[in-house]
Specification:
The complex is a heterodimer of chains A (about 220) and B (about 220). By secondary structure, chain A is α/β, with parallel strands linked by helices. Chain A has helices spanning about 5-10, 25-30, 85-90, 130-135, 195-200, and strands at about 20-25, 40-45, 50-55, 75-80, 100, 105, 110-115, 135-140, 155, 170, 175-180, 185-190, 215. In chain A, strands 4-3-2-1-5-8-10-11-12-13 form a ten-stranded mixed beta sheet. Chain A has a three-stranded mixed beta sheet with strand order 7-6-9, with no helix packed on it. Chain A starts with a helix and ends with a strand. With about 220 residues, chain B is α/β, with parallel strands linked by helices. Chain B has one domain (about 5-115, about 145-215): Glutaconate Coenzyme A-transferase (3-Layer(aba) Sandwich), CATH 3.40.1080.10. The longest helix of chain B has 13 residues, at about 100-110. The model of chain B has no long low-confidence stretch (mean pLDDT about 95). The interface of A and B includes residues 63, 64, 66, 84 and 161 of A.
């Protein structure tokens, strides 16, 4: 199984029935494909609707129904539309059970950097800062290291922050981690991954409990 | 009062140098016909307030590409490389604002409020030069309203008195901007007589709308 699918499958098992969830663009979007059959989540799209449904068949796209990445999607029965102020009232007002986002860097205090790299073209934060500040649970779904092999889970973020002390869970292809007041606790390891391996690819010192679960997909 | 006018009449009310809010999210809900008419006009030096800057050749991004804009206020410019290029070349100024903050700033302007406290951006560069206030032990940034001279909106249906109905995700910033500008011009896909819209169906009350133009065939977005 490729690393991104492994990550998405684990994230998909975090939710509880009836959770209202916002999935970021890219890997987080694919999480929707793996939610267990007995768990029904309500997906929110910050451009203004709930109950985001699957991508329509070619030719069946509705130009007025796109997700926050501009891709054609659908609205499931029971869904509804609203304006941007209502959409962000949902986001900031604590009405989202969880948001799933990627990260450039995350650190042991739960700080997150995922919106700009100084010196590179800055696309803008879009809704990311509101999502991270407002969702009840912030889940980071990302590959464990950068393309160059550098750690992304740090002692202290170096890039400009998206939010401070908001990250709750980190899921990578190597393991499942929880950010606590004491630091980052390693809860589960992917099959075949050792504590030594995940720590060697992590700048922050992981807290290792007596029992570590297996990160099943 | 019949608010339906031609595109020419509507455009004659906009001046160079004005601040212009444009509805839409990555072209969905953007009044493409009015944008195209602005591109073809002599109007320039606009301050553009919009969620994003669309694409270089679609949506509100066309205004950036053809040098109609001197300042952009948006939450995201990543889908239009022209915006980033012109920003880096010093040709336009860009102010980036978190999307929820931008929406609420516009809502505030239309609602007569002097500002609001948001947790969004606390501890980031967004809080620079802004007042931080603490309420019940939590930090918030004091954000102020954003209004504009003109709002350019897209509706699915309008009646001749200016009541509006939006469709699906094309609603986004449109109803907020309808309340926050001195002159509100709406491009409607369909125009019906006053009385034909059910009062319960109306999403933007007609009192916020000044002019309605018909969406011409052939200026479909995407």
């Amino acid at each position: 199984m490729n690393p991104r699918e492994r990550i998405a499958r684990r994230v998909a098992r975090i939710f509880e029935d009836n959770d209202v969830v916002n999935l970021g663009i890219g890997l987080p979007t694919s999480v929707a494909n793996y939610v267990p059959d007995d768990v029904h989540i309500v997906l929110q799209s910050e451009n203004g609707f709930i109950r985001v449904g699957p991508v329509p068949e070619p030719g069946q796209e509705d130009p007025d129904i796109v997700d926050a990445g501009g891709n054609p999607v659908s609205i499931l029965p029971g869904g509804c539309c609203f304006d941007s102020a209502t959409s962000f009232a949902i986001i900031r007002g604590g009405h989202l059970a969880a948001t799933v986002l990627g990260a450039l860097e995350v650190d042991q205090e739960g700080n997150l950097a995922n919106w700009m790299i100084p010196g590179k073209m800055v696309p803008g934060m879009g809704g990311a800062m509101d999502l991270v500040a407002g969702a009840r649970k912030v889940i980071i779904a990302m590959e464990h290291v950068t393309k160059n092999g550098d750690p992304k889970i740090l002692i202290k973020c170096r890039l400009p922050l998206t939010a401070t002390c908001e990250v709750d869970l980190i899921v990578t292809e190597l393991g499942f981690m929880e950010v606590t007041d004491q630091g980052i606790v390693l809860k589960e390891l992917a099959p075949g991954v050792t504590v030594e391996e995940i720590q060697s690819k992590t700048e922050a010192v992981l807290i290792i409990p007596e029992q570590i679960g297996v990160m099943n997909s | 009062m019949n608010k339906v006018v031609t595109m020419e009449e509507a455009l004659s009310r906009i001046r160079s140098g004005q601040s212009v809010m444009v509805g839409g999210f990555m072209t969905v809900g953007t009044p493409e016909g009015i944008v195209d008419a602005l591109v073809d006009s002599d109007i320039r030096d606009l301050t553009l307030i919009s969620n994003d800057t669309g694409f270089a050749d679609r949506g509100v991004g066309k205004l950036v590409s053809c040098n109609k804009v001197r300042k952009v206020v948006a939450s995201h410019i990543g889908t239009n490389r022209e915006t980033g290029n012109k920003m880096n070349a010093g040709e336009i100024e860009v102010e980036l604002i978190p999307q929820g903050t931008l929406a609420e700033q516009i809502r505030c302007a239309g609602a007569g409020l002097g500002g609001f406290l948001t947790p969004t951006g606390v501890g980031t560069i967004v809080e620079e030069n802004k007042q931080i206030m603490e309420f019940e032990g939590k930090k918030y940034i004091l954000e102020h309203p954003i209004g504009a001279d003109v709002a350019l909106l897209k509706a699915h249906k309008a009646d001749t008195s200016g009541n509006l109905v939006y469709r699906r995700a094309a609603r986004n910033f449109n109803p907020l901007m309808a309340m926050a500008a001195g002159l509100v011009i709406v491009e409607a896909e369909e125009i019906v007589e006053a009385g034909e819209l059910d009062p319960d169906e109306v999403m933007t009350p007609c009192i916020f709308v000044d002019l309605v133009v018909r969406k011409e065939a052939g200026c479909e977005s995407a």
